[in-house]
Design a protein that fits this description.
Low-confidence stretches: 123-128
Order of helices and strands: HHHEEEEHE
Number of domains: 2
Number of strands: 5
Oligomer: single chain
Helix content: 25-40%
Strand order of the largest sheet: 1-2-3-4-5
Number of helices: 4
Length: 128
Amino acid sequence: MSPGHQYSLSRRGFCICCAVGTGFVASRGWLSPSQAYAEARNIVDLIRDDAARTPIKLHKLRRDVSILEGSGGNIAMLTGADGKVFIDAGITASRPRILEAANSVSRDPIRHLITRTGTSTMPTATHG
């Protein structure tokens, strides 16, 4: 669009715009402020809901080293004669699927969990 050109809306375009807008409001497509607030969801709830639905993928890297992918990130798993070591815990909502994937490698118990504490950019990573 050139700097001197003014945008104009034709009568037909204006009528179509009005008809669509009226239909949108009449069909209750527009939310009142209280409805919009009730519909709003915070980011933590969205992440938890997504983690609850996302499948856990198991990737065997080497003999006793595997990665569980899909619980809001990756979980490293080392298996040994005395049990499993998890590096990171994942998100609580996906715990049943994490355990199912881990048990598909070995039925040994999880003996140790190595996780990080919060930082200024990542408040916490100890969900599970």
